[in-house]
Design a protein that fits this description.
The protein is α+β, with helices and mostly antiparallel strands. 48% of the residues lie in helices and 12% in strands. It contains eleven helices and six strands.
Length: 259
């Protein structure tokens, strides 16, 4: 609705994860709403089974069928939850930066209550996902238990505080990333002598393939750079070895991946 009001050509996409009875019927609600406001509609279905890491698997499956330029409905409340979830999982500054504002998240500065009020004002049928109440999922407990507790303890709404902190951390994280690009992660001496925040970022950028390495892996590589070890396993069958003050990343085939 808001995208159409802004003059965009809109296609509403419904993704059915097939995890509960009646989920396919929700596509009709989305289709009717799209028709009402003059948007196109497309329905996608993905196959998932209940079990560990369901939220992460569902997210990956969902985005795999969505177009790259998709706009999401994440709000400031989602941002606050993401910050706390990442904190509880031991994320560094990048995780504490949470979701990056931009055109793909046009509602990130709005509160969830504001989007709900807009739906009420336009008489939109709202579908409530019962999985959002399932206490198995950490985000749900953060939403329904932790955030209300923080509000009670601080006697204020914690969401604006958390989102403001994310903005500050993101700016500082971006600066460190920029500075780290000048550091050659294969130069063992330079890596060992660099300030630790820059050294960690240079190594993380070097080792990142599909996913960034965890903190323990980064520390093992830095130990190699300092001469405390001759080599270190870095996941996925890869290892980093030092020779003549040079670090080399070896692929599972034991051939140098890059230098």
């Amino acid at each position: 609705m808001l995208a159409i009001s802004a003059g965009l050509e809109v296609t509403a996409v419904h993704v059915d994860h097939g995890l509960r009875p009646g989920s396919a019927e929700e596509a009709l609600v989305v289709s009717n709403t799209a028709t009402r406001f003059g948007a196109a509609f497309r329905s996608e279905r993905v196959q998932l089974t209940d079990g560990p890491n369901l939220e992460a698997r569902a997210r990956a499956a969902r985005f795999a069928v969505l177009p790259h330029e998709v706009l999401t409905g994440h709000t400031a409340d989602d941002q606050a939850e993401t910050i706390l979830v990442n904190l509880l999982r031991g994320a560094g500054t990048r995780g504490m930066s949470a979701m990056r504002p931009g055109h793909r998240r046009p509602l990130l500065a709005l509160r969830r209550a504001e989007t709900e009020a807009l739906c009420v004002a336009f008489g939109l049928e709202v579908v409530h996902d019962p999985s959002n109440l399932d206490p198995r999922h950490l985000r749900n407990r953060v939403r329904h238990e932790l955030l209300p507790l923080l509000a009670d303890l601080s006697r204020r709404d914690p969401t604006p505080v958390l989102t403001r902190q994310a903005d500050l951390v993101r700016d500082e994280s971006d600066l460190l990333d920029e500075l780290a690009t000048a550091l050659d992660p294969t130069d063992a001496n330079a890596l060992a002598a660099a300030p630790m925040p820059l050294a960690r970022r240079a190594v993380r950028r070097w080792l990142t393939a599909d996913h960034p390495p965890d903190a323990a892996t980064v520390e093992r590589v830095l130990a190699v750079a300092r001469g405390e070890a001759v080599a270190a396993e870095v996941g996925g069958g890869r290892r980093v070895a030092r020779r003549h003050r040079q670090l080399t990343l070896f692929a599972p085939t034991n051939t140098p991946q890059n230098k």
